[in-house]
Amino acid sequence: MCPSQSKSYMITWDTSSIQTVFTPGVANWERTAVSSPYIMYENGTYKMWYQGVTSAAPAGIYGIGYATSTDGVNWTNRQLVHGPYSGYYSTGSPYVIKEGSTYRMWHYDYYEWIAGDWSSYISHMTSSNGINWNNDERKVLSAQGQSNPQGDGYCVSYPSVLKEGSEYIMWYSVTDHPRPGVGGPSKIWRGTSTDGINWDVKNRQLSLPYIPSTWESYVLYPHVVKEPWGSDYVIYYSTLNGLGRAKSTDGINWTEREQILTTGCYSHFFQSPDGTPYLYFTQGSNIVRMKGRLIPEPSTLLLLGSGLLGLGKWCRRKGRRDIPLTAVIE
C-alpha cells in the first residue's frame, strides 16, 4: 500500500538488505563493470538503463545498456542500446523519462574543448520503445568554464531531470577548473529549460556545494525526486566516502544533509508499486539494491498524538469506547 499523502515520512535504510542484483556481462563493452542504473516500472515490467565499461587502452570502452525484470532483482534481456565508444570517447549515466509514447534520455558524452581542457557534456535523444534510439542525439548542456571555486567549471555529467508543469529542471555534476590541466572538487549545479533541450544559462546556479575537509569534500552523481507524500525535494548523491541525502523546499537550497552509507556511488532512488522504497547503487563493479522502510516524521507523530488525545477526551464526554485506533491513523 502506498503511503498516505497527508503524512510526512522518513526513510530508514536497512544495510543488511543490500544484495547484488546486476553484474558485468560477457559483451566486451560491459565485461569490467556496470554502474549508474536508472529504473522505471511500466506495465508490470521493471526497466533499467545503465552504464557498462571495459578497461581497455587507452581509456576504456563505454556504452549504455538496457535490461528488464519482473521483480527488480533478476534481470534479463540485457542489450546495448547506445554506443559503445572507445579510445577517449565515452558515454554513460542515462536518465530516462517517458512523455506520452516517447522516451527521452539525457546522458553524458565525452569530449569537447572547454577553457583549455577536454570536458564532458550532456546529450539528449529520443526513442519510441526505450531500446532503439532515434538518430536525433544532440548536445544540450556544456560547462561554462568558470575558474572560481564551486563554479560551473568543466566535465558536466550525471544529469537528473524532473519535469514540473511546463518546466524541466536538471541537476548535474560539475568539476572545479581553476586553470587548464588542473581539476578540483565536484559539486552539483541546477538548470532549467522549457523543452528539455535548451537550458537557460542565466538560470543555472550552484545547488549543492561541496564542503572542504568533510565527508562532503566532493559531491556528485545526483538523483533528485519529489516526495510522493509531500512537496519536498530529496537528493541522493555520492561523495568520496559513500552516499548522502538531503532535503529542499525549492530544489536549490538543501538542508538535513546526512551520510546514509560509507560505501557505494551512482545511487538511484526507486519506489516500488507497493510503496516500498529502494536504493539502487554501484558497489565495486556491480549494481546492488538496498531496501528502506517508511516511518512517520516526529512532527507527524506529535500531531497524531495530539489528535488522539483530543479524540479520547471527546469519546469520554460522549461515552464512546468503540472507535478503533486504526480508524484514526488511516
Can you characterise this structure?
With 330 residues, the protein is mostly beta strands. It has two domains: 9-296, Glycosyl hydrolase domain, family 43 (Tachylectin-2, Chain A, 5 Propeller), CATH 2.115.10; 298-330, no CATH class. Helices cover 8% and strands 54% of the residues. The chain contains two helices and 20 strands. It has helices at 298-318, 325-329; strands at 9-22, 33-42, 45-54, 61-69, 75-85, 90-99, 102-114, 117-127, 138-141, 154-164, 167-175, 186-193, 205-208, 220-226, 233-239, 242-248, 255-261, 265-271, 277-283, 286-296. A four-stranded antiparallel sheet has the order 1-20-19-18. Strand 4 (61-69) and strand 5 form a beta hairpin. The chain is globular, with a radius of gyration of 22 Å. The N and C termini lie close together (12 Å). The model is unreliable at 300-330 (pLDDT under 50).
Short description:
The protein has 330 residues and is mainly beta. The chain has 2 domains: 9-296, Tachylectin-2, Chain A, CATH 2.115.10; 298-330, no CATH class.
Oligomer: single chain
Strands ordered across the widest β-sheet: 1-20-19-18
Number of domains: 2
CATH homologous superfamily descriptor of the largest domain: Glycosyl hydrolase domain, family 43
